[in-house]
Model the fold of this input.
Amino acid sequence: MSSVTLSLQAKLDLEEIRIFWSRTSAKQRSLILRELRKTIQGIGAYPLIGVGQSELTRIYGEEVRSRLSGNYRIFYFVSRRVPEIFAILHTSRDLRETLANRAQ
Done:
């Protein structure tokens, strides 16, 4: 069985998502978090299915891919022995700017 790791920033992103959705119904929150977990497990099992992110690969210096989970995009490195998720961001955000700032 494959696995995946989460960077500290990705863990903070997940916590921010949990806090945001805590203001909604338990059913809605559960659905969002379940879908994120399912996508994260899929990244661990099939990391190459994600969409290549050539601009981010150039910025970070290693292969970056992403997968969509509802309204969230999950970014991860695939060049490591175990894929590492480094960002989980809502698609309404300026993803390019946010990730470029995190790379600095």
